[in-house]
Amino acid sequence: MPRKSFIVQNPSVLWFLLALALFTFGVTLLSEATGSDFLSTSFVKTLGKTLCLCLVAIAMDVVWGYCGILSLGHMAFFGIGGYAIGQWLMYARTEIIVEQSLSAAAIPPTTQEISDAIGNQIFGVVGSSDFPMIWAFSDSLFLQLLMVVAIPGLLALVFGWLAFRSRVTGVYLSILTQAMTLALSLYLFQNDSGLRGNNGLSGLQNIPGFEETSQATLSIAFFWASAMALGLGYVLFAWVTSGKMGSVIRGIRDDEARVRFLGYHVESYKLFVFTVTAIVAGIAGALYYPQAGIINPAEIAPIASIYLAVWVAIGGRGRLYGAAIGAAFVSLLSSWFTGGGAPDINLGFYTINWTDWWLVLLGLSFVLVTLFAPKGIGGLFDMIMIRRTPDRQGDYGPDKGSKRAEEGSE
Fold first, then answer.
1. Cα–Cα distance measured from residue 314 to residue 327, given in angstroms and rounded to the nearest whole number
2. Are 330 and 311 in contact (CB under 8 A)?
3. Which residues in 117-133 are b (16+ Cβ under 10 Å) and which e?
4. CA distance 219 to 22
5. Strand partners, 202
6. Mind listing the pLDDT tens digit for each residue in 182-193?
7. CA atoms of 395 and 384, how far apart (whole Å)
């Protein structure tokens, strides 16, 4: 029997990429960058950030929906990716400003004077001017891009190896990932962490070398980069979750002990999934925060990872497209409710302010989906795509008209 192609085994890949391509071209044509001015630059940035959130949601779905590991720390990897690229953006931008301000001096500044001035500009807000060791490679775009991948991957590899080899599973593993995230965020809140404490890294929307380029054009460039990353990420994870590897991963989710009894090294599969999804989350963060313009330790707090799990659950756990739909739906709805788009409702005795009530609505939605629609929004697409099996008659023997049926009737 000929082996089915990857697309035949995963028809959702083609449909997802087609929908993503149409959406990308549509937003581009309606943006300010093309002159149509139908979509504002700020909204294009919101859509670009939403695509990044869809990517990290798909990564979360692979590790939780397919492998059964409820990680409450993947937004920490997302934030680490943002900090890694943010260091270069802030350093390079500050370097340009410092060099321009010192260029008018009678005596040309030395390299050390320029470095001291950059350090004072960046760390003066926390009462320092010295570069910490963590900024050792901040002047190199290539090395910082490498850090976007290396740091989340290495952290996930070490944490996963320690946890999985000890066979920590279930709620205990979730608590450990949450504790890791909490420890990281509390450390980053300190001024001596080397990343400006609660102030975080700001001005990330100003891309060095593109000072003359409008924000409308930059927003479209990042939107396209986010769309390409989402498309490639979807194909990667569709490949990971299909075939023999996908069967083993789902088997670990459903009955880890049985998969181990069959001879598979469960820990290696779990470590692979945990590490790869952490790396993809870091890449998503590196694309997200230049569009957001700022990152601070609050972005890495455990509540962010809990929100991520809620998005995946609402979209449909165990379905890559469901995770993307859930992240996009909740993210855009959150922007509408908290950004003043939803009008307040005056009940006479009380006025419902959606900015205050949005989290209550989100929590209630999560509970309702868990109780009454466990397949989430993605389950609706399953209902449309499922083929109804033909009605069979009698004892489910050979179909009428088959050769065997004819022989039996002679």
1. 8
2. yes
3. bbbebbbeebebeebee
4. 18
5. 294
6. 999 999 999 888
7. 29
